[in-house]
Structure of Amino acid ABC transporter permease:
Amino acid sequence: MTTAPPAGPGGVVKTPRGPDLPPPARRSAPRARRGLLRALPVSPAVVLLALFMAGPIGYCAYIAFTDLQLTGQAESSFIGFDNFREAFGDERFLNAVWLTLVFTVLSSLIGQNTLGLALASLMRRASKPVRTVTGAVVITAWVLPEVVAGFLLYAFFRREGTLNAVLDFLHLPSQNWMFTLPILAVSFANVWRGTAFSMLVYSAALNEIPKEITEAAEVDGAGGWRRMWHITLPMIRRSIGTNLMLNTLQTLSVFGLIWVMTRGGPGNRSQTLPLFMYEQAFQKSMIGYGTAVALLLLVVGSLFSLVYMRLLRTEV
């Protein structure tokens, strides 16, 4: 036996408007459906990323814990952290880590970042013909294939190259730069090739700064360096963080430029982690050990990314 709904004022019977659920539960169902509908357009991209990025990365992570080799082995076996212990006990690996940090700091954090900001600031004040010519020259170096850029810089730094010819003409001491300072030579080559990206990023950021602010600071007597330090840099802080993150990740993975110029030599004095990984995996056929080095390089890039993402989240 069921009871009738209670009557309201005036004898009007109230009927329920929906299922016998509490109000939060009734609202959560449509909200969940809206979330699923919003996720449908991006689901193909998520599937592709899972197949072509997460899948290979996961497989490489598994190989890093095995003794897989290209030749001379019937089947691989799981060896745990032996590859990583061998890497941290290998002086050549530690040398590659050090050279990778030197190469990244010199060519990305200092070289491309500083030179790109300087070019963007100078081009903002230059005439249109100067901006056009400078932009064309810098961007041409950027769009050149990495192998072509490597050959050009090899011809510039070699013993009979352009740099020594200029130094001899000026009666200045010359040397075999590819032998005496190989890591500095490849760092300069990466700066020459990659500065255009930083210049474009900073040009866009500087154009967003209101002219009224800089003009007011100039009227108040602030010089160029003070305006740069107290006004320009704080206002483009997020662009600086984004540029540093992208440049650092790109520099950590540079392979072709160094391979063409020095092949990691002489000896191992310009052998960064990508070249060391290639040597172990494909020249010595130790795929498991080389993949472990690649996984460590991925961890290094992730640490840099976390630092830069922290800077981007920090309020100015």
